[in-house]
Amino acid sequence: MQYIGFDKKCSLLVQEAHLTKNSLLSGFDNLLKANFFQDKEGFFYTSFFNLSIGIERILKLAVVTHYMLTSNYQTPTIKQLKRDFGHDIGTLYIECLKLLPLYLHPNASNPARTANDEALIDFITEYGVGSRYFNLNEVCEAKQDRSPLYKWLDIARAIYEDHTPHQVRQKSAMSLMYKMDREGPKNGFTSHLDENGHPMMVFDILHRQHVVQKSAPLVIWRLVKIIQPIYSLLTAMAHKATEYEVQHNIKSMVIPHYEDFFYFLLAQKYDIKRRKRWLEIFNS
User: Fold this and answer.
1) Host domain of residue 201
2) I need a surface site. Which of 89, 92, 102, 272 has the fewest CB within 10 A?
3) What is the pLDDT of residues 160-187, one digit of tens each?
4) Alpha helices in 133-201 (DSSP H)
């Protein structure tokens, strides 16, 4: 789609921003729906797929825009993008962080990240590069690799424990046991196996579901915090582009106002933890 008064490149960047925005929002929504043992495992894969696409593309928007701003609005070639970055989200993220002091306050170059944040970046990077084909690859050529779902469970559990007070976690576990005593089912062995091949008990299954459910909003909060610097970077780039276009008498807008697309990345922890729908709210 093209718009009157806008350069063709602007129209294409606008469409890319729409794609990126919807990918991220869909990733958040599907993560909130996903869980184990409820026929909802498919939502995990949909979430990982959308998040890997959305994060990669928001980072590439920054890389491409920076190249244009420093090259008289010339664009990099597809070969350059593939050679320098491919689908490596981790490398793209580091590259974008290096750009922060060029457009923002120097202190913005080192946003605080936890070990779990790094694990999230590594997971999304790995999924985008190859893990999205894990199931069929393992069927066709068994390598005994760990499933992305097991890796995700590690991350979800770590984030849940890191950001939920011990007394709250203990109370939740005890409440779950009391509920089983009152309402059933009894805590016996089930037909489900854990990662090591051991039969799981009813409590194990219900507690895993509880952890995954409670961790999902926390994971989204951490993902928002990870991507927030890129939102600030794109916003600053868009303002820089406006100045450049005025100075060089460019009549048609070339770089869009990215802040109009990704303002949901300004959400605070409290709002993120209670939000149940993302795409419906921010794409209306």
Assistant:
1) 8-282
2) 102
3) 999 999 999 999 999 999 999 998 788 9
4) 134-140, 148-163, 166-183
